[in-house]
Amino acid sequence: MKICSKCNANVEDHMAFCPNCGAPVENATASSASEGEAASATESTPQYQEPLYQQPQYQPQYQQQMGYGPQGGAPYGYMPVNNEPVSLGDWLLTFLITCIPLVGFIMLIVWAVSDSTKESKKNWARARLVWMVIIYILSFIFVMAFGAVFASLLNEIGGLY
């Protein structure tokens, strides 16, 4: 077994580099003669040598640099989040715009998907759109059910005459 000259860690004979610090290890032939002399000296008086504890040396992990976007600012895949609070005037204008039938629906879609919309307003627009879809589906089912009941009542009344 070899010993690293840099960190004194035990290195197996077949290894060319120290697994602890990565330094190249000396050739085994240079240390084999000294090992033979040390072995004959230790045969007469057995000595127990405790292995030296080496604190592991951590090497920095290098990460691949991300490419930057065409604007030269944020890296690709980076989505800026606008966490500024929405002012009272902005909320009042938002509610006024959503009261206009077709324009309000279109603006909800724009606010829900726009990157420049503030995050709280974007989440509110998405939630409002989800509730609108649920209400429209339930309204359609309600109208169809009561339409069928009304049609059957008209059919019965028409049959009495």
The strands making up the biggest β-sheet line up spatially as 1-2
Count every helix, treating DSSP H or I runs of 4 or more residues as helices: 4
Strand portion = under 5%
- Supply the helix-strand structural class: mainly alpha
Q: Unreliable segments (pLDDT under 50, ≥5 consecutive)?
A: 28-33
Sheet with most strands: 2 strands, antiparallel
Helices and strands, in order, run as: EEHHHH
* Average predicted confidence as pLDDT: 78
Care to describe what's here?
The protein has 161 residues and is mainly alpha-helical. 52% of the residues lie in helices and 2% in strands. It contains 4 helices and 2 strands; from the N terminus they run ββαααα. It has a two-stranded antiparallel ribbon. α3 (101-113) packs across α4 (119-160). The longest helix has 42 residues, at 119-160. The chain is elongated and about 115 Å long. The chain starts with a strand and ends with a helix.
Question: What are the defining features of this structure?
Answer:
52% helix; two-stranded antiparallel sheet; elongated; mainly alpha; 161 residues
What's this model, at a glance?
The protein has 161 residues and is an all-alpha fold.
Which helices and strands, and how do they pair?
Layout: E1 2-3, E2 10-11, H1 28-44, H2 88-98, H3 101-113, H4 119-160
Antiparallel strand pairs: 1-2
Helix pairs in contact: 3-4
